[in-house]
Amino acid sequence: MNSELELLKIFRAAAEASSFREAAVRLGHSPQAVTRAVQALEHHYGELLFHRNTRQIRITRFGEELLRRSRPLLEQFDQLWEAPSRQRDVEINGTVRISAPHSMGSRAVIAAVREITRRHPELALDVRLSDQVADAVDEGIDVGIRVGFMRDSRFVARKARDMRLHIVASPELIAKTGAPAEPDSLASLPLIAAVDINTGRPWPWYLAGGQQFAPDKPALIADDADMELAGVLEGLGLAQMADYMVAPLIRNGQLIRLLAGHEPPAWGLYIYRPQRGPVSPRVRVVFDALHAAVAALPALDRH
Asked: β-pairing, 192-196 with 220-222?
């Protein structure tokens, strides 16, 4: 009874009913509670809101004016407070900012964007592709894709699938150099390395048993995974690349998978949002679409 808004809502119900008892039934209150609310408002305004007798109530002229002024505000509040899941024909709109690695742009993100815009044309998507680890909070990222497990407790992350790393080369290059039998043989072959934008140094190649191989003198260093892949297809060197990029090319014979027995354990591909607690419908739509698109990326064990 201490809420001014609640008092006005009870007053509205009483004004729309034939008695305080009927209003109480509609609201789930007692008739005494309705009476006390009306009395509190009458005390506040210094005006009588209802003429009442033992059989019925009749709103006063001042009460009619108060109802006219308060009803639109109460209806707006009801709409504002109603949970989106209970609203009819909710229109999902606004802007959602997405962060993803460059290699995901034309493979997973665009597929998700196509599906989202088809279903929710009023939703605007702001896509930022970068291989540098973004500060999601400072940059206003709503949903992102990240490789590897996320340990930040501020984030909500859901694994979409496993990602495996394959060492690959073109058939033409292997015909010239021969296939390496052991990881130690890699140092004598032309290699292509990916640069870690966060450090400026080439990424090491990850191998089974926690071992790593450092491509010390690569023939090509690239800061973009698609450039790296283009170099492999041109026969410029071997590279270690994500399965979702090379699996279709291995299956059709454009690339050869090397040292399969020395591949590291799978890494996780995660969809994340940097916010705990309730999530807006627009963010949920994008989160789920990205999760589905990443889960559908190709791998050697699927088509």
From this structure: parallel
Any domain includes 87: no
175 and 255 housed in the same domain = yes
Q: Which domain holds residue 47?
A: 4-81
Is residue 241 within 8 A of residue 225, CB to CB? The reply is yes
Residue 192: which of 207, 182, 180, 205 has the closest Cα?
Answer: 205
Picking from 57, 81, 105, the residue at the C-terminal end of a domain is 81
Q: What is the dihedral of CA 23, 26, 29, 31, to 10 degrees?
A: 30
Task: Kindly report the CATH number assigned to the domain that includes residue 179.
Answer: 3.40.190.290
pLDDT tens series, the chain, 303 aa? 448 889 999 998 898 888 888 888 888 889 899 999 999 999 999 999 998 876 778 899 999 999 989 988 887 787 677 655 544 445 688 999 999 999 999 999 999 999 999 999 999 999 999 988 767 777 788 999 999 866 666 778 899 999 999 999 999 999 999 999 999 999 999 999 999 887 888 999 999 999 999 998 899 999 999 999 999 999 999 999 999 999 999 999 999 999 999 999 999 999 998 866 677 889 999 999 999 999 999 999 865
Entry pTM:
0.70
202 assigned to some structural domain: yes
